[in-house]
Amino acid sequence: MESLFREDRRVAIVHSSRFGHSTKIAETVADVLFHNGVPADMQALTTATTPDPQRHHGLVMVTSVRYGHFSPGSFALIKKHRDWVESVPTLLMTVSLTARTPEKRDPAVHVYTRKFLEKTHWQPTQIEVVPGLLDYPSYNLFDRKAIQLIMSITGGETDPTAVIDFTEWDEVRAASQRFADTMLR
Q1: Is residue 4 over pLDDT 70?
Q2: What is the strand order of the sheet 58-64 is part of?
Q3: Mean pLDDT of 10-24
């Protein structure tokens, strides 16, 4: 029986997540790719993350923004593997609570995504900005207070017991489908 998977289209999915929500988003991307016959290998994004150019023919980077900053691993991966990253289809999926409103999901408007791309000089094949999970009960005191302050300034939820998933899961799946289509061309 012939395999449904295209090994010549295997994707590295790297994810950076402080509280686990970006990992769940990365798992959703992997699931959509899997159902389209595109195999994927998931790994946490650190400064030592190294995709295998012989094995991986595409890259998905799902990374959360914390206090306006991408993880150091995001910068390191682009710097260390620039030639490979520029030679394969890529998807950058930024996860940010500032993307709670549709107008803030536009990559050209999302200030943190723009700054990251300007600093790295990377031009991903596809860029998505998705809202994340607000989960005050799981934050330590410092994080809770800092996020409450940011939410207060931006007109968001400040109740310290609130847990709100702002993620538009259908949009995550649709973006993943578009990337799967790119990989199968």
Answers
A1: no
A2: 40-44, 11-16, 58-64, 90-95, 126-130
A3: 95
The average pLDDT across 93-103 equals: 93
pTM: 0.93
Cβ–Cβ under 8 Å, residues 29 and 61: no
Structure confidence by residue, pLDDT tens digits, 107-135: 999 999 999 999 999 999 999 999 999 99
Rounded Cα gap, residues 16 and 37, in angstroms: 25
Instruction: Tell me the CA end-to-end span of the chain in Å, nearest whole number.
Output: 23
Q: Answer whether 29's CB lies under 8 Å from 176's CB.
A: yes
Handedness of CA 165, 103, 27, 84 (dihedral sign): negative
The answer to whether residue 2 scores a pLDDT higher than 50 is no
Beta bridge partners of 135: 163
The CA R_g of the chain, rounded to the nearest whole Å, is 17
Segment (H or E) for 180: helix 169-184
Burial of residue 139 (number of CB atoms within 10 Å: 0-12, 13-18, 19+): middle
